[in-house]
Amino acid sequence: MVPGGYAGLGTGAHTPQPYEKVNGTWVVYGLGDQISGAMKKPRGNWGSIARFRFAPPDGAGARWRVARAEYLPQLAVQKPRVRVRTLARNGGHGRIRKKIGKAVLSRGAAADGLTLGR
To answer: Which of 107, 106, 105 is nearest to 115 (CA)?
Structure first.
C-alpha cells in the first residue's frame, strides 16, 4: 500500500487512484474499472478516464508538452445491461463524482493543472 491507503504497483484496485505530476511527467496510478462485472462493493464500478491534450514543441530540440490535463469520472451501471456513464457533468451521481475526484486529486494534481473534463 502507498500512503493514503491506495494499492501499490501491480495490484487490481478496481477503483480510481491518484494522478500526479512527477518530475514534469503525468503519472496515473490506476484508472479503476472501465467495465466491470457485478462487484460486492459499489465503488468497484467506479472508474476514470485520463485525457491529455498535447502541444507541439516550441522549436528544434524541444519536446511535446501537455497543454491540458483532465480526468473524467465514470460509472459502470450493471442493470438492465452493462453501460458506462460519464459523470463529468451534473445530472446525478454527484456523491460518486466527488469521491472519484477526491481519489484522483489526492496527491496534488489540481495544483499542477488537472481539471474535471466535460
So the answer is: 105
For the cut 60, the answer to whether the pLDDT of residue 106 exceeds it is yes
499542477: which residue's cell? 112
**In the numeric block, which cell numbers belong to residue 71?**
480526468
SS3 73: strand
pTM greater than the 0.90 cutoff? no
The predicted model gives 2-8 an average pLDDT of 44
Secondary structure string (H, E, C) spanning 16-71: CCCEEEECCEEEECCCECCCCCCCCCHHHHEEEEEEEEEECCCCCCCCCEEEEEEE
